Amino acid sequence: MPLWNVYHPAGAYTARQRQEFAADVTAFYAGRGLPRFYVVTIFHEVPESSFFVGGEPSSTTVRIMIDHLARHSPDPAARTQICEGLSRLLAPHTLNRGLYYEFHIDETPRDLWMINGLWPPASGSEAEQLWVRENRPVPY
């Protein structure tokens, strides 16, 4: 389950732009086999008077904190691939709009999360495929 917290300057994104951004994030993970409902994107609008980079106010910085729960990447090459893929995903929503961005990814152990009281099915399992088809958690 990826959880994205996107901290951005006030007025940086319209409602439509936020929806397009979240749709791209969702497509990234759905394309890797995760149920779409796993993907949560939250936008936090921050006024310039509360957003500082290097001790200076910033009206052009987007800071993204990503929590990965459903998949982990112990392999350094796979981690590099993920980060580079996310950078490509972010460019149209940040760099191409004159915004500077930073992100980091935290990985939560799989045994420390549940959905509606259900343990998530194993990665790639038939139960997970059921969750993908249903786009919701269902008992298995």
Q: Keywords for this structure?
A:
140 residues, alpha/beta, two-stranded antiparallel sheet, 6 strands, 29% helix, elongated
Give the number of helices.
Answer: 3
Order of helices and strands: EHEEEEHEH
Low-confidence sequence ranges: none
Computed over alpha carbons, the radius of gyration is: 16 Å
Span of the ends, CA to CA: 18 Å
Descriptive account of the structure:
The protein contains three helices and six strands, in the order βαββββαβα. It is α/β, with parallel strands linked by helices. Strands 2-1-5-6 form a four-stranded mixed β-sheet, with helices on one face. A hairpin with a 2-residue loop joins strand 3 and strand 4. The two termini are 18 Å apart.
Gist of the model:
With 140 residues, the chain is an alpha/beta fold. It has helices at 15-30, 76-90, 126-134; strands spanning 2-9, 40-46, 52-53, 56-57, 61-68, 100-107.
